[in-house]
Amino acid sequence: MTALRSRQDNAGYLFLLPWFAGILFTVGPFLASLYLAFTDYDLLTPPRWAGLENFRAMLHDATLHQSLRVTLVYTLVSVPLSLAVALGVAMLLDRRVRGLAIYRSIFYLPSLLAGSVAVVMLWRYIFGYQGIVNDFLALFGVQGPGWTSDPRYSLGTLILLHVWTFGAPMVIFLAGLRQIPAVYYEASALDGASRWRRFRSITLPLLSPIIFFNLVQSLIASFQTFTQGYVISNGSGGPAGSTLFYNLYLYQKGFAEFHMGYASSMAWLLLMIIAGFTAINFLAARYWVFYDN
Question: Which residues are within 8 A (CB) of 119 and not within 5 positions of it... i.e. 6 or more apart?
């Protein structure tokens, strides 16, 4: 057993080697950004030590606060919706439907293209003032708004885009559903449990580790949203700041206004926000995540 465990450990370390090698390329920029967060740096002249000035400035930056609100609304609305849709579709596909591999590939494909410029351009075309959605509404005599140019709807269209790319968590949910023993459902059916009861008492508890994993992954990814807001607003974050995601504002400060020191401090604030949400999820997990030993 000792020799077998040693070989398994060695194999594990071998697979971890690419990750360890990657650290060599990230530690330098990581530490450099930490230093730059406490400096006044414009990319053209040497950084000048500024202490906590960048962090004090963030307290009074109304645009930064707006970008935080947009990102939080986007995250808190899109993540639960996309996970709910992913779970629902996974449960439908778990019914041993014919051609499962084809359906799984079709539903998974949008998630592969989610962050691409082409998909966001297509989305802007579909929901533009003269887009496909408004052409369809015109058939019924309804004049639709500019979904991507009206601040009342622009963020909603990006949330819908995020929900549409539910393929990755769906595949993980489907794998988790396949691991739930069928005997549990058979026994509950014999006891007269309804479908809703079986879903609430069997599926959700046994799938809770998978739900937790998808939740953490989706939260982290949603806080890093950039391409959707950049393309849909041509880099401005408009209309009226309704699609000004935090990462987009960070990009504007760092690469448009050349306030790289301030942008670095924003990056560290984002890291702390993501770490905070992740920590909250891990603390709350002990009350609702069930591990079947």
Answer: 110, 113, 161
pLDDT for residue 75 is more than 70: yes
According to the model, what pLDDT value does residue 293 have?
Answer: 56
Within a domain: 148 = yes
Q: How far is CA 53 from CA 40, 48, 62, 135, 266, in A?
A: 9, 11, 16, 51, 12
* pLDDT greater than 80 at residue 8: no
The three-class DSSP label of residue 48 is strand
User: Hey, what are 38's tokens?
Assistant: 């406490």
41 lies in a domain?
no
CATH number for the domain harbouring residue 123:
1.10.3720.10
Output the CA angle 34-40-45, nearest 5 degrees.
110
Q: Which of 113, 131, 137, 142 is nearest to 228 (CA)?
A: 113
pTM score, two decimals?
A: 0.88
Residues 6+ apart with CB under 8 A from 278: 216, 219, 220
Report the pLDDT value the prediction gives residue 5, as an integer from 0 to 100. Answer: 66
Distance CA 173, CA 167 (A): 10
What mean pLDDT is reported for the chain? 89
Residue 266 lies in a domain: yes
